[in-house]
């Protein structure tokens, strides 16, 4: 298409360059939005055709997504697993385990109480000479051991109610965040296989048909937004000084009922055409510079890429 425009430009330059009324010749062109997917795959749905008007959010095409869907399911499972491990650390032991610890504590308390009574009884008997001091030492040891067992079980019950250690909980939270980030990535990859328009415009081309394999990044649909329509024309070197960005121009074309206002948006810094001769005052008049002008969005729909236009500088 650009080759055709270049040939058209050559014809324009080779013609007369400017009409008797001072108008300059040019042609309409567009900056196309070429829509692609970042991943490869078979084209399973092409939801637009050439000439269709689209708006932001309108579905354009879809590629196969079985692999991406499976990756998302796997990421969801990892999130659930990481959350379960974190919650398990926060909850502490199970209720049945806590009940077992409490039962053991009750037994230890009973044993400790009995050991205290046995020690008192042994102490009295030793004073009366019915028991040897060795038996009193044994009773004292049993009493102290039973008391320590009670303290040990008290500490175990407190610890069991606390859950995991702070560093373990932080590590588990990190695992949850990493799993959720992986799920976000999987979601993004899955969404890239179904592509919607981000602009208003007209579909000018579709490069693939349903069932074809599409390489990653290959444009599938081309859209021309009205604000991307522009007019390219060529200004002879002697008239270049009168042209500046923002300058108003008027466009006319075959079939246009009225002139179309536009503004200059670009002036080329170098000559578009350079004759193969040493510059002289006469040859400088053969130099032309590319200039671009853009009409309003409302007027841009009246022009079509490749259409010849006449431009009058204001």
From TrEMBL:
SUPFAM superfamilies: HlyD-like secretion proteins (SSF111369). Keywords: Coiled coil. The keyword Plastid does not apply. It comes from the Bacteria. GO terms for cellular component: cell envelope. Its main location: other. Pfam families: HH_YBHG (PF25881). It is found in: Cell envelope. Residues 75-190 form the YbhG-like alpha-helical hairpin domain. PROSITE patterns: PROKAR_LIPOPROTEIN (PS51257). Residues 65-156 form a coiled coil. This is YbhG-like alpha-helical hairpin domain-containing protein. It comes from Usitatibacter rugosus.
């Amino acid at each position: 298409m650009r080759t055709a425009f270049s040939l058209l430009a050559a014809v324009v330059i080779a013609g007369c360059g400017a009409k008797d009324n001072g108008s300059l010749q040019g042609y309409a062109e567009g900056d196309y939005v070429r829509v692609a997917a970042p991943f490869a795959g078979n084209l399973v749905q092409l939801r637009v055709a050439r000439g269709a008007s689209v708006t932001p959010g309108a579905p354009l095409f879809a590629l196969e997504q079985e692999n991406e869907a499976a990756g998302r399911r796997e990421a969801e499972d990892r999130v659930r697993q990481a959350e379960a491990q974190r919650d398990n650390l926060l909850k502490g032991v199970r209720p049945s385990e806590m009940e077992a610890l409490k039962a053991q504590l009750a037994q230890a308390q009973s044993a400790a109480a009995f050991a205290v009574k046995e020690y008192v009884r042994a102490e009295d008997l030793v004073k009366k000479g019915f028991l040897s001091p060795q038996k009193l030492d044994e009773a004292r040891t049993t009493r102290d051991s039973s008391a320590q067992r009670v303290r040990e079980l008290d500490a175990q019950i407190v610890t069991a109610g606390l859950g995991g250690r702070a560093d373990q909980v932080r590590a588990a939270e990190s695992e949850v965040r990493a799993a959720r980030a992986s799920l976000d990535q999987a979601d993004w990859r899955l969404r890239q296989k179904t592509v919607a328009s981000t602009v208003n415009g007209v579909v000018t081309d579709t490069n693939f048909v349903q069932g074809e394999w599409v390489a990653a990044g290959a444009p599938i649909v081309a859209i021309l937004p009205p604000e991307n329509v522009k007019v390219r024309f060529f200004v002879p070197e002697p008239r270049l000084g009168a042209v500046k960005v923002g300058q108003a121009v008027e466009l006319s074309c075959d079939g246009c009922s009225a002139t179309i206002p536009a503004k200059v948006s670009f002036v080329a810094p170098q000559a578009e055409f350079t004759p193969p001769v040493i510059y002289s005052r006469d040859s400088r008049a053969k130099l032309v510079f590319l200039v671009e002008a853009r009409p309003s969005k409302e007027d841009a729909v009246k022009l079509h890429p490749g259409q010849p236009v006449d431009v009058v500088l204001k």
